[in-house]
Amino acid sequence: MEKDCDINLDGEIDRDEFVKFIEQITAETFNVVSQGLIISLIVAPTVAIATKKATEGVLGVGKVVQKLPTSIYASLVTLAVVWVNSDSS
């Protein structure tokens, strides 16, 4: 990527080229972080609520799931997803 920013091809990155390099990295990082946040903070709670309803009838697990308020269950699942995502990064 640094070679893409070396506009004058002198093998060194001057101030303007450095600014372009930082802008590219910032934009790419923002996109990756944004996608991760969308998945973690929107999709995960929705899936958690659906799985809570689906697991309420399962023997053993169902009673525990029923006792947990939906908001707590969704928060726990969301935290687990964020934790897994941060470990894989």
TrEMBL record:
Alphabetical list of InterPro entries matching this protein: EF_hand_dom
EF-hand domain sequence ranges: 1-28
GO molecular-function term, one example from the UniProt record: calcium ion binding
Protein name: EF-hand domain
Organism expressing this protein natively: Arabidopsis thaliana x Arabidopsis arenosa
